[in-house]
Write a structure and sequence with these properties.
The chain is 61% helix and 8% strand. It has 668 residues and is α+β, with helices and mostly antiparallel strands. Strand 6 (475-483) and strand 7 (486-493) form a beta hairpin. The longest helix is centred in the N-terminal third of the chain and has 37 residues, at 160-196.
Length: 668
């Protein structure tokens, strides 16, 4: 930001103690002689008087502005930026004028303007969905106030050195304010886009774009890694494949429309609870009706929110908008609230009935039980049973500024600002708990639980989802040809992500009906073709995180794909990896070693490598019968294969460090 400078004048006299030149009215820096009582630096009096009056004005108590409409905060940033547009230059002109001793009027005028702005921002409605924006604007005006205070201190300084120190401090505050202006502007744009977007495809694209920016990720693989790093901080677990992208895009919503700190707290607490009793989710995942309820709950929230947004957009009366908001509140309780409450109550041991029976209880009862349970309090805040009941039983009366809910025991009046805040807080709670459930289910081998066909149900075709995904990975001119169970994707791009990695990350967005995929990528002057079956990648997503099963599934998937006419992994490379894994079993307990070696032999057979299968059979015999059995030839062959081959695929060699984010650990 621009550096501003102004000049200060100081009267100088000769020190009677040591004869050096010093500033009038100030202790001599050389000999320490105190100034005489009658010494006055008359040149600095006017500016000090102006600065003192300005300080008094700046420190006066904030005056709350008149209450505005519920939506007024949406336009607060525009008003702040408009006022600041000409204010900064006027302020520095006033400081320069005061420094010359030409009167306090200009300084008082610009400070009066600033105080009005400061009070407007600090008096703004900080509830959801504009709380993050208001917080950023408050940080901005606080930084500007610190800047003003430092410049006033410079005007009050007794020596040039003191003035210089205060001016340097003021410049630092000014630089930070410039950064906050950019930050709050970005937040305002994101809040506006996220709150106004109605098209699901555009929303998904917007979330991916914003997440890439927020995490400063160069591509989706980097975003997956960054998201999983953040999950590790919040939950002490990196989750399964895809957890990073799901978290990062959801976190973007929290960082702009919700309370991001509370969102992360609910995610952490609910995940910790579920992880403490994994048998609950394992059992629920095997219960068909739970999966149906989980999918239905997600859809109910989506449909209810979209319906409410449409109604609010076209409402001609507060009553219509109010009914829509209460409809979302009801959907939160009876949809995802009911399902999540049942899971939390089962996980903490408060409920022991089967889910099949528990699901028939009223959503309000289950949610209220969670909110009353000491260990679960705070997890489902925002889910309001009163609003749900009032909407369902026509006990709600819609006023201009509030809704009145009649109950037998009491009558409750809720301002529209609190209704809106509560709805967004409820969505915040639901998304955090759902994310914890999906993360834990993924770690148990149930990746993308209930989400495989979600895009289609939400009105997004799989082709649109795949195109959105590839666009975020810097691909253009995307053409998707669907021929029954076979898909052909052709695209042009300069992404440096290896094509095998693209296919791995693309799998969750392909329809379940697709069995074979061909990916033709034009990069610069080269064209690469990738082809193979999709099912092996689906099997990989079902494997438990950080397990031997997952590692073998990862290699098995690679063996079935062709890259530019040759297998992804050469025979030599597969033999090396398998030999290294087999060598780790030599000192293991026989039962464990045999199970592991048999899995490796199945991998060898899948690769149609009879020699490798023969060598592993010999090692299995040794593990079962002991060192006295004759398996020297097989062991010798495996030992020879343990030297890394020079023919590892270039894309594998260049990107092996990134693969832990795809399989949970490095498979070497």
């Amino acid at each position: 930001m621009t550096d501003y400078a102004f000049q200060l004048a100081f009267d100088q006299i000769t020190c009677s103690g040591c004869g050096v030149i010093r500033i009038r009215g100030v202790e001599c820096a050389d000999c320490g002689r105190q100034p005489k009582p009658w010494e006055i630096d008359t040149s600095s009096v006017p500016r000090r008087q102006a600065a003192t009056q300005a300080q008094t004005l700046l420190l006066q108590a904030a005056t709350p502005p008149p209450a505005g409409s519920v939506g007024a905060t949406e336009f607060l940033h525009a008003e702040v930026f408009a006022r600041l547009d000409g204010w900064t230059g006027a302020f520095f002109q006033a400081v320069a004028t005061a420094a010359k001793g030409e009167g306090p009027e200009g300084l008082e005028a610009v400070l009066t303007e600033f105080i009005e702005l400061r009070d407007l921002v600090h008096g703004a409605d900080a509830r959801r969905p504009f709380g993050v924006l208001v917080k950023a604007l408050r940080e901005l005006v606080d930084e500007l106030q610190s800047m003003i205070s430092a410049y006033l201190a410079a005007l009050l300084a007794s020596t040039p050195l003191q003035a210089e120190r205060q001016a340097t401090l003021a410049q630092q505050h000014l630089d930070r304010a410039a950064g906050l202006i950019g930050q709050s502007g970005d937040i305002a744009v994101s809040v506006g886009q996220l709150s106004r977007e109605r098209d699901p495809v555009q929303m998904q694209s917007l979330l991916l774009t914003r997440a890439l920016q927020a995490y400063q990720a160069s591509d989706l693989l980097a975003l997956e890694a960054a998201g999983r790093d953040k999950l590790q901080v919040i939950t002490s677990s990196r989750g399964a494949l895809g957890s990073g992208l799901l978290f990062a895009t959801t976190h973007v919503l929290a960082q702009h429309l919700f309370d991001p700190d509370r969102f992360c707290e609910v995610l952490s607490r609910s995940y910790t609870l579920l992880r403490s009793n994994p048998a609950v989710l394992e059992k629920l995942a095997a219960t068909p009706v739970f999966k149906e309820d989980f999918e239905r709950a997600v859809l109910e929230l989506f449909d209810g929110s979209l319906e409410a947004a449409h109604t609010v957009d076209n409402a001609v009366h507060t009553r219509q908008a109010g009914r829509a908001l209460l409809g979302v509140a009801a959907s939160l309780v009876e949809g995802p609230g009911r399902v999540i409450a049942a899971v939390l109550l089962l996980a903490c041991g408060r409920k022991s009935a089967s889910y099949a029976n528990l699901r028939h209880e009223m959503g309000t009862k289950l949610v209220n039980t969670v909110q009353e349970e000491s260990g679960l309090q705070g997890l489902l805040d925002g889910l309001d049973s009163d609003l749900r009941t009032g909407r369902a039983h026509a006990l709600a009366h819609y006023e201009q500024d509030a809704v009145v809910i009649e109950r037998k025991s009491k009558t409750r009046r809720v301002e529209w600002g609190d209704v809106i805040n509560g709805v967004f807080q409820g969505i915040e709670s639901v998304l955090a708990c759902q994310l914890a459930m999906l993360q834990m289910l993924g770690e148990l081998g149930h990746n993308n639980f209930g989400l495989n066909d979600l895009w289609h149900t939400l009105g997004i075709t799989n082709e649109q989802m795949v195109a959105t995904f590839l666009s975020a990975m810097k691909y253009q001119d995307i053409v998707i040809t669907a021929d029954g169970a076979n898909w052909h994707i052709e695209a042009r791009g300069e992404s440096d992500i290896p094509l095998p990695v693209v296919v791995i990350m693309l799998q969750p967005y392909l329809p379940q009906s697709v069995n074979e995929l061909v990916f033709t990528a034009h990069r610069g002057n080269a064209t690469h073709v990738l082809s193979g079956p999709v099912d092996p990648w689906r099997e990989l997503s079902k494997a438990p995180v950080d397990s031997d099963v997952q590692q073998i599934a990862f290699l098995r998937a690679h063996l079935s794909w062709i890259f530019d006419g040759v297998p992804w992994l050469s025979t030599a490379y597969v033999r090396w990896w398998t030999a290294v894994q087999a060598s780790h079993t030599l000192d293991a307990i026989p039962s464990i070693a045999v199970a592991r070696l048999r899995s490796l032999r199945e991998l060898a057979r899948a690769a149609q490598d009879d020699t490798l299968a023969w060598a592993l059979t010999g090692v299995i015999r040794r593990a079962r019968l002991g060192a006295d059995c004759d398996a020297r030839a097989e062991l010798s062959q495996l030992g020879a294969w343990c030297n890394p081959p020079a023919a590892a695929p270039e894309w594998w060699r260049n990107n092996i460090s990134r693969f832990p984010d795809l399989i949970g650990q490095q498979g070497t």
